[in-house]
Each structure stands twice: as C-alpha cells, then as structure tokens.
Amino acid sequence: MQHIGRALAPLAGAALALGLAATPAMAHAKYDHSGPAAGATVSAAPSTVTVVFGEEPSVTQSTLMVFDANGARVDASDGKVDTSDPDRKTMKVSLKSGLGDGVYTVKYHTVTEDDHGVVDGSFGFGVNAAVPAAQAKPSESESGGDEGAAATGPGQLPNSGEDPRPAPALPLLAGVALAAVGVGLRWRGAPRHQRS
Q: What is the CATH architecture of 31-151?
C-alpha cells in the first residue's frame, strides 16, 4: 500500500498544482432579461424598469438608473435589488411620471457578493420611438474588483478596468512543492539499482 501511495503522490501533486493554478471563472451579474426588454418600443412610458441578472447582485453596491435622450435622470433614485425575488437576481427602479416619447437608456452597475465581480452595462428602450441599433442590445464591461464601487456614491457608475489583483502564485507553488515531495518519496522508496 505504501508503494501505491509513493507512486500516486507525484500525480496528486501535479493535479493539485494545475487545479489551483487555473484562474477560477468569476460569477458576474450580467444582464439576462428586462421589462421593458432591451431594444423594445412600448406605447406608453412604464412606471418601473425591471432588470433580471444571471447572478445575484450585491444589495448594497449595485445600482440601476434610467436617463432620457438628453442625459437627464428620469428615475426616482430608488433602484435596488428586489428582495421579494427568492433568487435575488432582480433589480427594479421607479420612473418619474409624465415621461414623454423618446428613447431612454437604462444603466446598471452590479457587484457580486462572492467574488466582487463588477459589471457596468446599459441598454435602451423606446416610448413610441425606435431604439438605435447601438442601444438595442445590452452593452457590458466587466472587471474582477470592486475598487471603483468604493470610490463612488450610489448615484454614480464607476469605470471598470482590469482586475488589479495579482494572480494567486502561492497555491501554484504549494502544488509544485507537493509534487516534488511525492517524487522524492518515490525515489527514496525505489531500490538503489533503479535510482538514477
């Protein structure tokens, strides 16, 4: 049994090194669907905009806002995660009453609780107006850190950039060290005439 353990130790160490060296896929709260839908034209201004994401956005760090064609904010500053949604993947924001015809832009900033993945996105919908092709589908940029979220207030959308965190070298080194120990044990347990 000890001989089998010596034989498998280098393989286990190598597998651990490869597994830990792989960068984990970050779960970002990206656009899934919305009401009104991205690019949709509706006949009357809605009272709320609802956006559903693929992952749960942070209740405290995620924002949802709506702007008119002139860049004026037309929501009631109450964009938040809908806590009545059991999956907590939905955000809602109320719109001001009396909105006229035109194209409106929905902007969102989502941060996921588990890995602080950040997504900044936007899409358009029209009220008795066609949505330009550039706004008809969600446009998103993502990053792995929430440094921008900490630097801005809840009414602002921070710029997203590259993930500034260094790659995790310690797990890789631990896996390589384990593999080396396994090779050493295997070599030490081999008969002298098989050592090279």
A: Sandwich (2.60)
Per-residue pLDDT 10s for the chain (196 aa) are 555 555 555 554 554 444 444 444 456 889 999 999 999 999 999 999 999 999 999 999 999 999 999 999 999 999 999 999 999 999 999 999 999 999 999 999 999 977 678 999 999 999 999 999 999 999 999 886 534 433 333 444 444 444 444 445 555 555 555 566 565 656 566 566 655 5
Give the pair of three-digit tokens for residue 34: 């919305």
Q: Where are the domains of the chain?
A: 2-23+167-194, 31-151
How far lies 83's CA from each of 67, 88, 90, 100, 194, in Å? 24, 6, 8, 30, 66
Paired tokens of 124: 């358009």
41 closest CA partner among 98, 124, 105: 124
**CB atoms closer than 10 angstroms to residue 78:** 11
**Structure tokens that stand for 105 in this block:** 């832009």
- Given a contact cutoff of 8 angstroms between Cβ atoms, the answer to whether 50 and 34 are in contact is yes
- Respond yes or no on whether the N-terminal peptide bond of residue 36 is cis (omega within 30° of 0): yes
